[in-house]
Amino acid sequence: MNRYILIFLVAAMTIAACGTTRKQRKDPQTAEAIAHKPFAIEVKAVIQDTAQAGKDAYKLSKSRVSGDTLFVDIEYSGGCKDHVFTARHNGQYMKSMPAQLNLMIDHNGNADACRELIKETLAFDLCGARYGSSGTLILLLNGDRSNKVTYTY
User: Fold this and answer.
1) d(CA 137, CA 38)
2) 68-103 tens-digit pLDDT
3) What is the DSSP letter of 55?
4) Which range, of 52-61, 82-91, 123-132, averages the lowest pLDDT?
5) Cystine design at 84: which of 108, 114, 138, 153 (Cβ 3.0–4.6 Å)?
6) pLDDT of residue 8
7) DSSP codes of every residue in 61-121
């Protein structure tokens, strides 16, 4: 009887161990998924810094502001390693009405050589980019004047 229990335990442990060897991937975040699960996405802070954090390629397909959060839909190649995105500005606001600010979104792909097309939505807290206590700020994403979003606070 004890031999059968031992064989069952060894078989159960072997089956359980086989199921843990695959790496679990997060589902890509889309605007529709975020609308149904508002806390499913990590909101990162916008930092004031002049150093570039990453220079890997990505495509910015859509951007919008909701409250104090900038949402950016992006696409990039990867799938094997974690990718890190940061948003930064240099603190130099353009003297215009309303004020304008270059907001750079950097991508560090950690030398990911995989070629899966990843689509994801990033979220950044804009409170750290405000100019004055209340007003409107025009954000030029990656310094592109044709890709502007308006942030009203």
Assistant:
1) 24
2) 999 999 999 999 999 999 999 999 999 899 999 999
3) B
4) 52-61
5) 108
6) 52
7) EEEEEETTEEEEEEEEEESSS--EEEEEE-S--B-SSSEEEEEEEEEE-TT----EEEEEE
Residues 6+ apart with CB under 8 A from 37: none
C-alpha to C-alpha distance for 39 and 3, rounded to whole angstroms = 50
Tell me which fold the domain 26-152 belongs to: Immunoglobulin-like (2.60.40)
Task: Identify which of 120, 43, 106 has the alpha carbon closest to the alpha carbon of residue 78.
Answer: 120
Dihedral of CA atoms 106, 125, 141, 47 in degrees, nearest 10, equals -50
Pairing, β 59-66 against β 69-78: antiparallel
